[in-house]
Amino acid sequence: MAHLRSRRRLALAVPVVLSLTASLGFLPSVASAAPAAGTVARAADGPNLAYVVNTRTDHRTIESVRREIVRNGGTVVAGYDRIGVIVAHSANPDFGARMRAVRGVDSAGATRTAPLSAAGTTEEGAAQVLSRAELTRLAASAAAGEEPLEADQWDLRAIGADRAARINPGSRNVTVGVIDTGVDDTHPDIAPNFSASQSANCVSGKADTTYGAWRPADADHYHGTHVAGEIAAARNGIGVAGVAPGVKVASITVAQPDSTSLFYPESVVCAFVFAADHGIEITNNSYYVDPWLYNCMDDPDQRAIVDAVNRAQLYAQRKGTLNVASAGNSNDDLDADAIVDDSSPDDSTAHTRTVDPHECFDVPTQLPGVVTVSAVGVKGAKSYYSSYGRGVVDVAGPGGDKYQIPDTPSKNGRILSTLPNNQYGFLQGTSMASPHVAAVAALLKSAHPHATPAELQALLKAQADNPGCPTEPYDGDGDGVVDATCAGGKRVNGFYGFGVVNALRAVK
Ligand SMILES: [Ca+2]
Ligand SMILES: [Ca+2]
User: Fold this and answer.
1) With 0-12 CB in 10 A as exposed, 13-18 as middle and 19+ as buried, what is 124?
2) Calpha distance 358→385 (Å, rounded)
3) Which residues, by Cβ under 5 Å, contact ligand 2, an ion?
4) 3-state DSSP call for residue 505?
5) What kind and span of H or E run contains 461?
6) Which member of 10, 15, 209, 247 has the greatest number of CB atoms within 10 A?
């Protein structure tokens, strides 16, 4: 689910700092029983669901597991042999349990609760689309040398991106992959910096590189185009500018094309592997994988989801890709003992449950090595909706806040960027904060082409500005009720991690 509205997003917990090496042991292996002899494929008598089956990576195991998938009434949709993840479909209600009993299978489970191709609940955010008249009025405020709508881009100035662009807008050799609802690469502010050869549609769980398959299904799937513009909208004399207008953006579409716009795990697995295999240096992940906001390790399906997506994102890190993800918009303390999740599963009927965010993970943001991003408004304070948590949030970025009002032509505290069909509009969310961080990481990668993902993350943190925890009780929406408590000190804390990233320092 794209991270637009309230609820959403969580972040990392577990050991405070998980090294990539240590994280390889993130998931304890589970002994699996040998398959029962003589079982036969059963007739389909349940809902047709998608599954991930996670195995050892030797050829012999993978071949035998593929045979067991078929024998148990499944079909293989995609296989990622190097990470031992197989995507399958099955209508056998026992498929997950049967696959978990197969020798060599580490975990297996359904990635959804609603049947394939069935529509779930709709959640569409509300982009504040600017009319042509408003665009003209706002552009009248443009100063010489600025993009027409730049006066409303307070977020650029907040992290020194306007000045950074004059020094170094970033390298054409660096690409940020936008794993999202698709990107409208025909938008005149996106087209100059779009990398079609590094773009795909991963919705099915298998990459489709047909020309244009990466585009949004319709205008309601605008989220990815807004994100792409925040990163790399061109300085071309029209519209807006991105934080790193010299780098390239690619689109890896993972959203269901229907009104649900859900981001299922197998789509995200495909996206990380595709990004890694196509030389994408940085991915932006402004979403959590559906249908579970938190995936609990004591549930076999949710455990398999964590395992599959983690294998894929670790594979990307090993191939040199830094993964940046939004912390979520539920104003949750991700280091709390308990969080109430009343939105999962979001593809059928949600039920309320209390989860421990140290054992139940928002994926991918809480996975090891992923940069977890909280949001700030124009005043530099945590956005009222932004989730937070000591030891979870790594850095912060401008995500906008309607309660923090800027002195700009529109007086709009949200983030202005591109929308499909040559439009522009405002959105707020940790979805908007993450691309600012991804773009600063792209500037750092431009300056340090040999830096590893871990080194880039360390640079992001070292250059960040930390406002420290607020001295007054935090009341983000100003209604007199305290909304959150910031834990930690000036150097690192739960609201901002190591601080708000800085584009200017990245290019100096
Ligand atoms: Ca522009
Ligand atoms: Ca309040």
Assistant:
1) middle
2) 21
3) 475, 477, 479, 481, 483
4) helix
5) helix 453-462
6) 10
Decide: 304 and 54 in contact? Cβ < 8 Å: yes
Across the chain, mean pLDDT equals 91
| pLDDT (tens digit per residue) in 50-95 | 999 999 999 999 999 999 999 999 999 999 999 999 999 999 999 9
pLDDT exceeds cutoff 60 at 41: no
Residue 291: asked if its preceding bond is cis (omega within 30°), the reply is yes
CB atoms within 10 A of CB 26: 18
pTM given for the model? 0.90
User: Among residues 281, 246, 280, 248, which one has the least CA distance to residue 170?
Assistant: 246
Picking from 204, 181, 198, 201, the residue whose alpha carbon sits closest to that of residue 78 is 204
Answer whether 396's CB lies under 8 Å from 497's CB: yes
What span, in angstroms and rounded, lies between the C-alpha atoms of 273 and 313? 8
Rounded Cα–Cα distance for residues 469 and 488 (Å): 7
Q: How far is the CA of 383 from the centre of ligand 1 (A)?
A: 26
User: DSSP label at 423?
Assistant: E
- β-sheet bridge partners, residue 494: none
> Rounded to the nearest whole angstrom, what is the distance from the C-alpha of residue 238 to the centroid of ligand 1?
4
Statement: residue 270 has pLDDT above 70: yes
For ligand 1, the distance from its centroid to the CA atom of residue 147, given in whole angstroms, is 6
Q: Are strands 423-427 and 128-129 parallel, antiparallel or unpaired?
A: antiparallel
pLDDT tens for 104-127 read: 999 999 999 999 875 433 333 568
Helix (H), strand (E) at residue 438:
helix 430-447
Q: pLDDT, tens digit, for every residue of 167-206?
A: 999 999 999 999 999 999 999 999 999 999 999 999 999 9
What are the structural domains of the chain?
32-110 (3.30.70), 121-467+496-507 (3.40.50.200)
Rounded to the nearest whole angstrom, what is the distance from the C-alpha of residue 383 to the centroid of ligand 2?
A: 12
Measure 8 CA to ligand 2 centroid, in angstroms. Answer: 19
Nearest CA among 370, 385, 398, 391 for reference residue 488: 391
- From the list 462, 463, 453, the residue with the least C-alpha distance to 20 is 453
Is the pLDDT confidence value at 30 over 70?
no
Q: What is the pLDDT of residues 216-259, one digit of tens each?
A: 999 999 999 999 999 999 999 999 999 999 999 999 999 999 99
Rounded distance from Cα 473 to ligand 2 centre (Å):
10
Q: Using CB atoms within 10 A of its CB, is residue 353 exposed (0-12), middle (13-18) or buried (19+)?
A: middle
